[in-house]
Amino acid sequence: MKNRYRQAAVALFGATVSLVAASNAAAWTLKEAAAPYSGTTISAIFLDRPGYKAAESLIPQFEKETGIKVKWDVIPYENTRERQVLNFVSGGDQDIALVDVVWLGEFASNKWIVPIKTFTDNPKLADPKLNLPGFFPILLNAFGTWNNTIYGLPFDNYSGLMFYNQCMLKSAGFNGPPKTWDELLNVYAPKLTNASKNQFAFALQSRRGETQSADSFMRMLWPFGGSLLDAKFRSNLLSQQSQAGLEFRQKLMKYMPPGIVDFDHAESVNALAQGQVAMITEWSAFYPTLTDPSKSKLGNCLGVATEPSGPAGLKPALGGFSLAVNAKAPKKKQEAAWLFIQWITSEEMARPYLEAGGVSARTAVYQDKAVQDKFAFVKPMVTSWQGGVPDFRPRFPEWPAISEIIGEWGTKMMLGQVSVHDGSVEIGKRMEVILQKAGYYDGKKPLLK
């Protein structure tokens, strides 16, 4: 599936917001807008990641200015979707929805989240400085926009990057990281692996679940020109390009730590931080962890680059979330939740959020040379975002069921319990059954992405 920007829709929406802003700019302040909601408590789900800790450190500022109390539960990523779906269905008390790129279609199609137009059309709630075009287009589209409607604002967004131990590479005779996946496998990996010393070239987070399906399996398709589905939503896993990417992953495993199929993000990041591996491809959000002396031994040895290129070029992974308003929440809490979402993702808060350890989706903050010099991940991340991502993980409502299939059979592939070819056949067959039942092949459902 090719990534198609919905620039016209965003531009039209931006024009509408600009009209509201023009009439409202002189008078609007967050404090005055929030006055009717003072004393209201809104609830959210956060993850145990740097971007959420950054938000937590800034929330007291919002609470002091608005009188709105923000509370949150920190839960593991793998439990987040299920927890929220149960909350939506049961009418629970979660007011802010945390929307992963692959949950957007499900949440929006079920009308569990509120289009932001509900709030931006209200001059009492709409910050004149919202500036939707100030978000990276790929992020506003991928994480917030479904079927030409904006539901959420990008939050905790990141590109896949290569983090590496410069000192280990230098000791092995390398002046920088590999530029291509082929170079990583055939040139770097043999010299950086010494299993007898528990030292390995690379770690690819691959734990069964969304980590396996998105961070491991899909990551190896795109650079080789492969994809999960073709233009007609049929499996593309048996294409020469897709097979090449998945076979490459199998070859690379000999240079990864034992038990790599049990590595989640924390294990992958820690393996680099403690000197067990020389390179990882991980989300830019983990830069604060790798630069924290209490969690990482890397110090000045940390290097950051774009992910390696494959035969199809630079095709980095795209990850992250948007914050949206829960449609099941009471109206007053919906509006208070919107004020928080609008504030935490604003251009005004982009620099404080970045300084606190988050990754902003705003373009302006990364144009500051001081920011580029201070945060080594900025340039490769912006390069990745500006270059575009070739293929979102499918964002349709059926993704969670398909992800489970990939998690199961992708793990079996890595463990050698099934060949890459046979595993691809099983995934394709089971995936197409789901899509058939959903109506994608009989014209009952448009091929939304």
TrEMBL record:
It is found in: Periplasm. Keywords: Signal, Transport. Pfam families: SBP_bac_1. The keyword Signal applies. InterPro entries: Bact_solute-bd_prot1, SBP. The keyword Disulfide bond does not apply. Residues 1-21 form the signal peptide. It comes from the Bacteria. Its main location: periplasm. GO terms for cellular component: periplasmic space. Belongs to the bacterial solute-binding protein 1 family. PANTHER family: ABC TRANSPORTER PERIPLASMIC-BINDING PROTEIN YCJN-RELATED (PTHR43649:SF34), ARABINOSE-BINDING PROTEIN-RELATED (PTHR43649). This is Carbohydrate ABC transporter substrate-binding protein, CUT1 family. The lineage of its organism: Bacteria, Pseudomonadati, Pseudomonadota, Betaproteobacteria, Burkholderiales.
